[in-house]
Write a structure and sequence with these properties.
globular, mainly beta, 20 strands
């Protein structure tokens, strides 16, 4: 496992706790190895990094804001600059870092979340920060955490669910309001969702029929058009992008989206 970039809270995992901002070694401008050779999957969030090993263990490091390291330590100042194991379980499969709220799916399809709860993004029907992983009911295949934060997740039956901050319609429930905070998973219409990604204020997803859908913030100060719908209108429900049926994987960032198609293009 190799890492590089900003090290404001020890998120590089190189045993170099940096002050933020201030003196100290707080960057790596070239890939630098994290000790060990049995890493499996890694994910980067906001001043945090999380990874699984091939033995099924789960590791995390960086900022502990809102107890988001999941190490049963509530202090936001208790940063970790080296990988620390979360619990002792050996059946972790897919880790996902967000902004001070994190998640991981186990090999049996159970979903676990922890960290910042005051937007409801941990899916526990409350707005309480969690310092240790707690299960979200159901069996799940994928999860994505947006930066606001909010969550999109797909169950094993192909249904799509969302929760957390929905202030600009990004939860997809035909409601866009600064007061919309959902603390429990709520289903988005449809049963044939393939994958979904939560970005900043906009969401994008594909279905098993190859169609692509977007919703959430679109104007963003009147200039972006992040939903790809040839306008600047905000949507609070999934809206199909065009009529193509060969979309494979959609993604997005702060005010923009992108997607892969499954068809080959011969130049």
């Amino acid at each position: 496992l190799w890492i590089w970039g900003w090290n404001s809270a020890g998120q590089l995992g190189l045993n170099q706790t940096a002050s933020w901002p201030g003196s100290g070694d707080h960057r790596a401008s070239s890939p630098t190895q994290i000790p060990g050779v049995n890493w499996s999957k890694a994910t980067c969030g906001y001043r945090q990094t999380m990874a699984t090993k091939t033995d099924g263990t789960l590791w995390i490091w960086g900022s502990n804001s809102d107890a988001s390291l999941g190490l049963n330590e509530s202090s936001s100042l208790d940063r970790k600059s080296s990988p620390c194991q979360i619990g002792t379980d050996t059946d972790w499969s897919d880790p996902v870092c967000g902004r001070d709220v994190n998640a991981a799916i186990k090999t049996n399809g159970t979903l676990w979340m922890w960290g910042r709860g005051h937007d409801g993004a941990t899916g526990q029907n409350n707005r309480t920060d969690l310092s240790s992983p707690k299960q979200v009911p159901g069996r799940w295949t994928a999860i994505s955490i947006g930066t606001q934060p909010y969550v999109l997740a797909i169950k094993t039956d192909g249904t799509l669910w969302s929760w957390g901050n929905g202030k600009r319609g990004q939860l997809g429930h035909n409601v866009g309001s600064s007061n919309l905070l959902l603390s429990s998973p709520t289903q988005i219409a449809g049963t044939n969702w393939n994958q979904a990604v939560a970005a900043e204020y906009q969401s994008q997803a594909t279905k098993t029929d190859g169609t692509m859908w977007t919703w959430g913030d679109n104007p963003n100060s009147g200039s972006y058009g992040a939903l790809g719908l040839n306008d600047l209108t905000q949507r609070s429900s999934p809206t199909q992008v065009g009529t193509d049926t060969d979309w494979d994987t959609a993604s997005g960032g702060g005010g923009f989206g992108m997607a892969f198609k499954s068809t080959s293009i011969n130049n």
